[in-house]
């Protein structure tokens, strides 16, 4: 019996470096980044800062570490921080924002649309009682795109309103921009247009951009100096990191390719709808399907040769650089046959 090769739509993290990326990794100039900085790593960090419109940036092994570093430096133990319901820092980082950064999370409802709280809600929830025994609000943590909301985006005007509301109530702002480049491509703006006014931002190089590993956290030069110390504390220092950083530099040159992933997600959503599935209208590269039994649906998909994951009570499909339109059509054919 011939086994069907699975088509993997679990995440955009499953991609493999292409020939151009592996060649850049093999030829990278390297040094000891812990002792006196790796030259290729430093080149990547400066490039990230330039793209994001910040003073400086720091490479980190993962987005989770980048977020944890930012929250640890922004929060005092016992401070309350606000974040939209279902954000990565609340639901997919093992409670590290509370356990390690010492923050008390306050989820915000999506009153402005999927994954998006309104500026009015930020104003009403934060800056409350002045009683000495009340929680002290100090941080707003945003996510763009919003994972559990199916890759929903925050446009620049709403971003500006949220930043203004946070500032008016004395909050600092961290942006989890793991898929910020997807948001920028979807909105037709530069990434820096989506970081205006924030204190820090984290971006991931190993999701849609296709690098094998790595993220970056960015902000002021002073923040990055402290972030480098915190990275060392968390075990995130690397030696000849240029081998990894070279892949990140290549990835940053190919951000417009994300448009293809978005087109493929729309193609997948349209095809699933024709097959009778109830799915969201994707803005970026994620499709969320509402099904009666998530576990049963995932098992049926697996047997049909399609890999997906559970997400917020739904089935999540993610398109990426290793899946083309022909693969999407094959996914639809397999699902149609299984149904």
TrEMBL record:
Gene Ontology CC terms: cytosol
One Pfam family from the record: Beta_elim_lyase
Transmembrane stretches, start-end: none
Coiled coil regions, renumbered to chain: none
Modified residues (N6-(pyridoxal phosphate)lysine): 207
Cofactor(s) listed: pyridoxal 5'-phosphate
Annotated ranges, domain Aromatic amino acid beta-eliminating lyase/threonine aldolase: 8-291
Alphabetical keyword list: Lyase, Pyridoxal phosphate
Family annotation (InterPro entries): ArAA_b-elim_lyase/Thr_aldolase, Low_specificity_L-TA-like, PyrdxlP-dep_Trfase, PyrdxlP-dep_Trfase_major, PyrdxlP-dep_Trfase_small
GO MF entry, a single one: L-allo-threonine aldolase activity
GO annotation, biological process: glycine biosynthetic process; L-threonine catabolic process
Family: Belongs to the threonine aldolase family.
Protein name per UniProt: L-threonine aldolase
Organism listed in the record: Actinopolyspora righensis
Record lineage: Bacteria, Bacillati, Actinomycetota, Actinomycetes, Actinopolysporales
């Amino acid at each position: 019996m011939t086994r069907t090769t699975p088509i993997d739509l679990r995440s955009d993290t499953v991609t493999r470096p292409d020939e151009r990326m592996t060649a850049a990794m093999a030829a990278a100039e390297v040094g000891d980044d812990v002792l006196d900085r790796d030259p290729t790593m430093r080149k990547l960090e400066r490039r990230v800062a330039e793209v994001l419109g910040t003073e400086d940036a720091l490479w980190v092994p993962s987005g989770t570490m980048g977020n944890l570093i930012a929250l640890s430096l922004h929060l005092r133990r016992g401070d309350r921080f606000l974040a939209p319901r279902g954000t990565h820092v609340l639901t997919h980082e093992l409670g590290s924002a509370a356990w390690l950064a010492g923050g008390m999370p306050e989820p915000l409802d999506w009153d402005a649309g999927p994954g998006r709280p309104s500026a009015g809600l930020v104003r009403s929830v934060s800056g409350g009682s002045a009683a000495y025994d009340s929680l002290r609000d100090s941080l707003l943590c945003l996510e763009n795109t919003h994972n559990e909301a199916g890759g929903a985006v925050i446009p620049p005007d709403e971003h500006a309103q949220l930043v203004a509301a946070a500032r008016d109530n004395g909050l600092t702002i961290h942006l989890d921009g793991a898929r910020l480049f997807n948001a920028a491509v979807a909105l037709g703006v530069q990434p820096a247009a989506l970081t205006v006014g924030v204190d820090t931002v984290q971006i991931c190089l190993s999701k849609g951009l296709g690098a094998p590993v790595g993220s970056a956290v960015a902000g002021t030069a002073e923040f990055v100096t402290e972030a480098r110390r915190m990275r060392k504390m968390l075990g995130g220092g690397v030696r000849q990191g240029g081998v990894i950083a070279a892949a990140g530099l290549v990835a940053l040159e190919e951000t417009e390719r994300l448009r293809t992933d978005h087109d493929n997600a729309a193609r997948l959503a349209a095809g699933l709808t024709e097959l009778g599935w109830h799915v969201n209208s994707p803005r970026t590269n994620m499709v969320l399907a509402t099904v009666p039994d998530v576990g049963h649906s995932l098992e049926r998909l697996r047997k049909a040769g399609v890999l997906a994951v559970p997400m917020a009570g739904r089935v999540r499909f993610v398109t990426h650089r290793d899946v083309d339109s022909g693969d999407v059509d094959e996914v639809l054919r397999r699902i149609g046959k299984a149904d």
